[in-house]
Amino acid sequence: MSGNRRKAREFAVQGVYQWLLNHQPTADIVKQLRDDPVYRNIDEKMFLALLNGVVDEAPALDLRLAAYLDRKPAELSPVEHAILLLGTQELLHHLEVPYRVVINEAVELAKIFGGTDGHKYVNGVMDKLAAEVRTVEVNAPRRQG
Questions:
Q1: Is residue 141 part of a domain?
Q2: Taking every annotated instance into account, which residue ranges of this chain make up the domain NusB/RsmB/TIM44 (predicted)?
């Protein structure tokens, strides 16, 4: 299932990216993305929750991110902005996903879609954000295993 969730995140980043560039209705974005043959292999419920959550809450998500950015959200590359919005949405609203997984997935998305060192920037921002929004989880002792 993790592959299905990773692909769901990949499609969500593509959808958020499209939305950031042209504010097209999410229904149109979803319809277009569903044409990709890989789409049938994703966790669609997760994809839709992430995409719709980001679009519905983008201003609030940007406010959460702003404290950890070295520039305004609108000045980020659209790819990094999409990934950071997605990661923020997941940290805040998908508590069933461990924060380390959220950060790792955001970094992997940045490696796939972003610029050369974009993943380092994403990692730094997500680490700081996780420390704020998932304080108990971040500060919990790590299990040995």
A1: no
A2: 6-130
